[in-house]
Design goal:
Blueprint lengths: L2 E14 L2 E10 L2 E6 L3 E8 L4 E4 L1 E6 L12 H10 L2 E6 L10 H11 L6 E7 L8 H4 L5 E7 L12 H9 L5 E4 L3 H6 L12 H4 L2 H18 L3 E3 L5 H8 L5 E5 L1 H5 L2 H8 L12 H11 L6 E2 L8 H4 L16 H10 L5 H16 L15 E11 L18 E11 L2 E5 L2 E2 L17
Parallel strand pairs: 1-4, 1-5, 6-7, 7-8, 8-9, 9-10, 10-11, 11-12, 12-13
Antiparallel strand pairs: 1-2, 2-3, 5-14, 14-15, 15-16, 16-17
Length: 443
């Protein structure tokens, strides 16, 4: 009997856990229900000849600024940029106004996001000294990605920088905790190393040791608390070497910008547009990150999409804010690294799909397999193009990669069987829903 599907992706090179092969993929009810050939009829058929069909790419670190900072970005605009770049799901950070640090505020974001965001989504709960004991309940809210700790680079109640408070946070709950690891005390002591008007002094102030001290501290505290952690945006090879000795308790992330930009070029060329926390460091640092990435140490890639307006970025350093957009350029930047031989396509999939699934315990995402959500990032790995301002969708309307010539681009973004983007054109409506996690599925 001929099967009928809602959607069939035909003639593409499909990347399953077993490898890459020419195949068709059948979708019904938002799920993958068949992988093979001559599958039958479908309400919609997409010809993927000459294209690679990857598991939907997940960006597990974005700042979409809503509520309170919508002049920079909001959940709709940030997710629009995400799907235009090939991202099917994002985890959004809690440093909004107000902070996302309570049951009410988490649920407010989930309500704002439902079918308004273009991609699927989850929200981190911000740890504070005041909510530490409540985190074990807050992390169990369906749609939460877990708890986020800012050891540095934050202000107000989201800054948790002393060992006693950190230990209280780590003792409350069981899910993996995401960490911004920069040592606040060392950075405060080094503020006089900032040079007015010179953003190249940013990595001098926020030096390697600021990152390493925090990474060692939090791993030690996590081990005492018997709590798994995830160290975000690692920028130094020394940290990756140290984390490699503690993989039983610590996973970690690197970003496309730290793998692509180098201080020697970035600060003279981009000025404050290259300013972020932790900083863009030297070419030697960048090359060292690649060495450890190809040794398998980083578990995921996240963009740390953190937009600010042109007017804000135009302020003289250090009055200029740290952060850059990146959710839309994550996939094409890494495909370009694939094209240039620095990265295999298999490792790219591991860092953007199966890695996030493994680290965070996602339900039904991260691979092309029967029963999984029909999330696909369809890419043309040979397409040569230039990042132009007309392509950028973030409300901030700039990118440090504007004008860059790349090889490889997302042609289509499919979320639970919905074609939300094809050839730079969006669907008629957003379909984003909350991501499901093993830890909250039966909460």
């Amino acid at each position: 009997m001929t099967q009928t599907y809602d959607l069939i992706l035909k003639n593409g090179t499909v990347h399953t856990p077993g490898g890459a092969d020419k195949a068709d993929v059948g979708v019904r009810g938002g799920k993958i229900v068949a992988i093979g050939s001559a599958l039958g009829d479908a309400g919609e058929v997409i010809d993927c000849a000459g294209l690679d069909v990857l598991p939907g790419c997940i960006d597990s670190q974005v700042h979409f600024r809503e509520p309170g900072l919508e002049h920079k970005e909001d959940l709709e605009s940030g997710s629009r940029a995400a799907v235009l770049g090939g991202i099917t799901a994002v985890f959004e950070m809690p440093n909004t106004n107000p902070n996302t640090d309570s049951d009410e505020r988490v649920r407010d974001k989930l309500t704002r996001a439902h079918h308004r965001m273009w991609c699927d989504h989850a929200f981190y709960v911000g740890a504070t000294a005041d909510n530490a004991e409540q985190l074990k309940e807050l992390e169990r809210i369906p749609g939460t990605a877990g708890v986020k700790i800012f050891m540095g680079a934050s202000t107000g109640s989201l800054l948790v920088d002393d060992d006693a408070a950190l230990s209280r946070v780590l003792a409350s709950g069981t899910r993996r905790v995401a960490i911004h690891a920069e040592d606040e005390a060392r950075m405060n002591a080094r503020k006089d190393l900032r040079v007015e008007g010179d953003p190249s002094s940013h990595p001098v102030w926020r030096d390697d040791e600021s990152a390493m001290i925090a990474t060692k501290r939090i791993i030690g505290l996590a081990r005492k608390a018997r709590r798994r952690i995830h160290i975000l945006h690692v920028t130094t090879p020394a940290e990756l070497e140290y984390i490699a000795g503690h993989k039983d308790i610590a996973t970690c992330e690197v970003t496309p910008q730290h793998l692509t930009l180098a201080a020697e070029d970035a600060y003279p060329r981009l000025g404050t547009y290259a300013q972020m926390n932790p900083p863009i460091r030297s070419g030697a640092h960048r090359d060292g990150l690649w060495r450890w990435l190809n040794q398998g140490v980083p578990d995921v890639l996240g963009s740390d999409h953190a937009p600010h307006t042109v007017e804000e970025k135009a302020k003289a350093y250090p009055a200029s804010p740290s952060g850059m957009p990146g959710v839309q350029t994550l996939v094409p930047l890494l495909l370009n690294h694939v094209a240039e031989g620095r990265l295999s396509l298999r490792r790219f999939i591991e860092l953007t799909s199966s890695g996030p699934q493994r680290v965070f315990g996602l339900v039904g995402k991260g691979r092309i397999a029967l029963g999984y959500d029909a999330d696909f990032t369809v890419v043309d790995i040979k397409k040569r193009w230039t990042v132009g301002s007309e392509w950028l969708a973030s409300r901030c309307n700039w990118s440090p990669f504007e004008g860059m010539d790349l090889t490889g681009k997302a042609v289509g973004t499919i979320v639970r069987g919905h074609r939300v983007m094809w050839e730079d054109t969006l669907a008629n409506e957003a379909v984003g829903e909350a991501v499901r996690f093993e830890a909250t599925e039966f909460a």
